[in-house]
């Protein structure tokens, strides 16, 4: 087995100024969320950057489409950057990671075996503004093509640096803080019970869970310290899942785009039922989590999970739900074939997945 953290992590208030230390680069290609421009963090970052030339792309669409990324890659081939910087949420970082591949290796096609990707040289810096995806330390980039999400997974796109400046996540709207916080929680939970979990990933996953348990609700109220702790917990969870991978909840979330909910909210919707399904195989590990988090029993942990995820059940459009239910067999089969399902502690047939999808939706209050 192995465990690695290839990304150099710089963290703390004002850690954005670490950019000053990057020397020897000629041309930068910068991807930025429009909110980072609005809040002044993009300009601040650029003021630290010592390069001869730079090109900045502001306003990356959420849930990036394949075609958008190939357009950006064409731009990259014109600009010829030796450093790519992403400042923003998970989508911005995922775009930068995908562009790195398409820019240096235009022959890349979705679904290509990771071994076929050559060594890539462009330095990649991720500066997350949300606290959930873990993309700043992970080997994956999720792109949408024809309405389906595809994950590009390669060690070549693991960011070289992740800068976790505590000021950035404080600007997140409450809904984003909640959805991304749940995503981080599910990352750590799935990594902890994964078939690839090790004592190294377990230690990190547990610490991430503890920070999330103590800071989730405070962070929703805008507590500055809690926002900072959630930011670090999200990267910790990213390190855990980048090594131990994820499980059934993410396999199901990746195939449920038809519900038109954010990734975090899909995880919130499915996770309590995935946890219930996994109980047969993962009870011992869930019990360890409960104990570490200071709960008296596994039931208290389940209550906490319900508490933080119950918002997901609110107001899902009825027609969207009906359309999903009409396609549930096809979607369940796709989820059963998602590579992440293979790391889940309990193997799920497509019929069992269908049942979990149906339970998650039918227990809605609307
Ligand atoms: Fe996720």
Which term fits the overall shape?
Answer: globular
Strand content: 5-15%
User: What is the radius of gyration computed over CA atoms, rounded to a whole number of angstroms?
Assistant: 20 Å
Q: What's the level 1 CATH class of the largest domain?
A: Mainly Alpha
CATH architecture of the largest domain: Up-down Bundle
Q: Overall pLDDT, averaged?
A: 95
Low-confidence stretches: none
**Which distinct ligands sit in these coordinates?**
fe (ii) ion
Span between termini: 46 Å
Major sheet, described briefly?
6 strands, parallel
Strand order of the largest sheet: 1-8-5-4-2-3
Structural class by helix and strand composition:
alpha/beta
Write the element-wise H/E pattern from the N-terminal end onward: EEHHEHEHEEEEHHHHHHHHH
Number of domains: 2
- Kindly report the CATH topology of the largest domain: Dehydroquinate synthase-like, alpha domain
Helix fraction?
Answer: 40-55%
What do these coordinates show?
- With 366 residues, the protein is α/β, with parallel strands linked by helices.
- The protein has 2 domains: 8-168, Rossmann fold (3-Layer(aba) Sandwich), CATH 3.40.50; 172-362, Dehydroquinate synthase-like, alpha domain, CATH 1.20.1090.10.
- It is 51% helix and 12% strand.
- The protein is built from 13 helices and 8 strands.
- The protein has helices at residues 34-38, 41-48, 66-79, 90-104, 174-193, 199-220, 224-244, 248-254, 263-292, 298-309, 318-326, 328-337, 350-362; strands at 8-11, 27-32, 53-58, 83-88, 123-128, 140-145, 148-153, 161-164.
- The strands form 2 sheets. A 6-stranded parallel β-sheet has the order 1-8-5-4-2-3. The protein has a two-stranded antiparallel sheet with strand order 6-7.
- α4 (90-104) links the parallel β4 and β5 (123-128).
- α6 (199-220) runs antiparallel to α7 (224-244) and α8 (248-254) runs antiparallel to α9 (263-292).
- The chain starts with 7 loop residues before the first strand and ends with a helix.
- Bound molecules: fe (ii) ion (FE2).
- Fe (ii) ion is lined by residues 183, 187, 250, 263.
